[in-house]
Amino acid sequence: MLSPLNVDLENLLLDPNNPRFSELGEELNSVAEIRFADPKVQSHTFDKMRDQRFDVNELRDTIKTLGFLPMDRIVVRPWKVESEPLKYVVIEGNRRVTALKWLVQLHENGKETFSGDRLNNLKRLECLVLDDKLAPASAMLVLPGLRHVSGIKEWGPYQKAKTVHALRKSGMSQQEAAQSLGLSTRAANSAYRCFLALENMKANDEYGEATEPRMYSYFEEIFKRPDVKNWLAWSDETEAFTQTDRLNEFYGWIVPSGEDGSGQPKLPEAKDVRDLASIVTDESALSVLRGPDGSMSRALARYQVDHPEDWFPKVMAATAALKTLTPDMLRNMDEPTVKALDDLKGRIEQAQNDRTQLMGKG
Questions:
Q1: Close Cβ partners of 346 (under 8 Å, ≥ 6 residues apart)
Q2: How far apart are CA 24 and CA 49, in angstroms?
Q3: Going by DSSP bridges, is the β-strand pair 124-130/74-78 parallel, antiparallel, or unpaired?
Q4: What are the backbone angles phi and psi of residue 29, rounded to the nearest 5°?
Q5: Residues in a beta bridge with 298
């Protein structure tokens, strides 16, 4: 299935549909195979790979200092379009190939000068060629997945989940998909559900256009919070949340507000789902969040008024702790401790202001 072959760098095509590009908020599988070798497609892919999130500049500098050490050979497949000479699409090693092309470009522009031997080290590579006629379709995902899902320069959660989903849809069982990527079955199943939930949002008529890969983290938090998961009523049978009215409401809380989409979401960060779990079964607090000027801080303030048993003992404990502070302790406080006290003061003032507004509206 894999056979060694020496390939010239100029005959290696960066993958325009690299799963890494989801980190840039892009859809995958958007470039047709026949266009892979187009100079503008390759130039655009090269520029995207040099985004600071992929740390290719560090890899470039390491190769410049040490030379290219092919301990982990680059994995490629034949390009599905006949060409002379033959060209190959990089499956595993797009960062390394980008770094090599970058160094060669710097040499050709006169910004670096390498000897003939150094250039040959950069331009003539030992690769492993995947015979995609013999290999299962899932191999395209498994080979890079084994390295990136559980290894070096780890893929983000969204890329992991997309890979798990693709393997499951290719016919693999839950256990096979997990084992192929070095994940536990539980972790793979969780990633699979989160990916489905995000895809369902993407298919939503009202909120689909506002869906971004970064929102995957919101659904990770949902599946960690049984109260929120049950409130939205996830079904493994239908692979979707079944409380559609509540689901649309949740979508509205995580996308930018306002007709022009420039306003702050009611849940600006995925971690806000943790606070949602506190109030999701309390209609009084939810009604505050649903209001035109509703926010999570105001909803929590309403919840705390109605449920003093949840927070009042903690306030009393903090009060008791503050009473124990001696003058020496106050004088010797370090900066993080002083900041913590300032944060506490700010939270108390915010809670008091929220309560005043709530009581005024009551």
A1: none
A2: 10
A3: parallel
A4: 55, 40
A5: none
Instruction: Parse the chain into domains and list their residue ranges.
Output: 2-135, 155-262, 282-362
Q: Alpha-carbon distance 282 to 286, whole Å?
A: 6
The span from the CA of 24 to the CA of 14, in Å, is: 17
- List the alpha helices (DSSP H) in the chain: 39-49, 56-66, 94-108, 116-123, 139-148, 157-169, 174-180, 185-202, 216-224, 226-232, 244-254, 272-279, 283-290, 296-306, 308-323, 327-331, 335-361
| Separation CA 154–CA 169 (nearest Å) | 23
d(CA 188, CA 161): 7
CA atoms of 9 and 253, how far apart (whole Å): 48
What's the one-letter identity of residue 252? G
pLDDT tens, residue order, the chain (362 aa)? 678 899 999 999 999 988 777 766 665 557 899 999 999 999 999 999 999 888 898 889 888 887 887 666 788 999 989 888 899 999 888 999 999 999 999 999 999 999 998 999 899 998 888 876 655 555 555 555 545 444 445 567 887 888 888 888 878 888 888 877 778 899 999 999 999 999 999 999 999 989 988 899 999 999 999 999 999 999 999 999 999 999 999 999 999 887 777 788 999 999 999 999 989 988 989 999 998 888 898 898 888 877 776 667 788 888 888 888 898 888 998 888 888 899 889 888 888 887 788 776 54
Pick the CATH number of 2-135 from 3.90.1530.10, 3.20.20.30, 2.10.25.10, 3.40.50.720: 3.90.1530.10
Structure tokens at 293: 């000027």
d(CA 212, CA 190): 19
User: Contact, 123 vs 8, CB < 8 A?
Assistant: yes
Structure tokens at 271: 């971690």
The DSSP call for residue 114 is -
pLDDT of residue 152: 44
Choose among 184, 207, 358, 15: nearest CA to 175. Answer: 184
Joined together, the tokens standing for residue 29 give 């599988």
